[in-house]
Amino acid sequence: MAQNNQQKGQQKVQETSQLEKVRREKLAELQAAGKDPFQIVKYNQTYHSVQIKRDFDELENETVSIAGRMMFKRVMGKASFCNVQDKEGRIQVYVARDDLGEEAYKEFKRMDIGDIIGVKGFVFKTKTGEISVHAKELTLLSKSLTPLPEKFHGLQDTDLRYRQRYVDLIMNEESRETFIKRSKIISEIRKFLDARGFMEVETPMLVSNAGGAAARPFETHFNALDEDVKLRISLELYLKRLIIGGLERVYEIGRVFRNEGVDTRHNPEFTLMELYQAYTDYYGMMELTESMFRYLAEKVCGTTTIVYGDKEIDLGKPFRKLTMIDAIKEQTGIDFDQVATTEEAKKLADEHHIEYEDRHVKGDIVNLFFDEFCEDKMIQPTFIMDHPIEISPLTKKKPDDPTKVERFELYINGWEMCNAYSELNDPIDQRERFAAQDALAEAGDDEAQHTDEDFLHAMEIGMPPTGGIGYGIDRLTMLLTNSAAIRDVLLFPTMKTVKD
Asked: Which of 32, 38, 266, 366 is deepest in the core (most CB within 10 A)?
């Protein structure tokens, strides 16, 4: 079987090589005749396919110019048809020898699937009712030298789809639609936040201290300064500096980098949005989040009831609110509020086969229990609130229970969709928590944060009460486009280099 597959693979390569040879010969002939398509620098494209179909009543018999990739061609003597694909879709083109002329029609017949062409003609409807363009002029704008995949099956190889996204976008309409929706999601987020008085900003990617999250950073060397620097793992600490500076409502949508594993929901570089609002708390962030998710569903999907896989998720109802302790109690019967010590927590972990590290304390064990028994049960939108202080070094303590903090994570479809705090604004408390993180780092925790003296100096100048939140844009896009893996919503996901 393996030998047969190898033989088929070699045969396919040979066939492709022969087709490429023929296409290059066609290009050489065009160039020799002074008709090199690569010398054309522009084309007056007046309409796209969707516009023509949408506005047919106004455009019927009107002259239009379209441009795109030829995806289908059927030659029938003196008259032929082809399909042209542009950024919005496809439209049929009727090509007749009597309209183009003998020579131009011959040139059309020698064009290949994948060639990029310009068509000028009038809009009409065929006898079968298909809206089309009747070509009066046809221009080869770019010669495709490598054949596209077999047209009836598109690009099915998942690895190739990710590595050759340009081919995937040409061949797979659902992939193209996913990335159009991704762009719309980001656009609508900006509209939503702008309407609430937020200001979009940009902060550094290369930093000396990668803080704001528990993650291992990528490291590099800055030659001009002769200093080692890191790629940011979060946007938090610089955005908080802007809150301290008085900007009050800020957000950033940008790439962050975490030197960790790759799976269906994680990529080492991903798009994060963080926002901070002065004079509010984590309840304010809940209201904003629920309103924004509902708004995005309506704008992008046209409904607040969305489908992911075999699940129907209702973003229109009020989101459930549940403390982390109550969520664990609901699933396991264990009330960690009644567990007094780390030793008791570790004993419970042993009894429930939860793996932990020696350095872990009660708060870490609580988080591990939630991850194991609760996370995947949160299908409908649920705010999980009031995390242990040990896992939240940048968050304000709950006034009535200093072992917990004013923090929530939103879970939908069993995924963490965002992480929000009533931000810690006490510089003395913050210094103590940074010191605890430094101790973890010295003990070998690669994901621990380090003291950021400049950030502490900013806090000492005075930071107002603030609510803050971070959203993974890629995971949000997965949810709203019903995409199975994060690589399906990243135009160019991180891939291991293929060696020749």
From this structure: 366
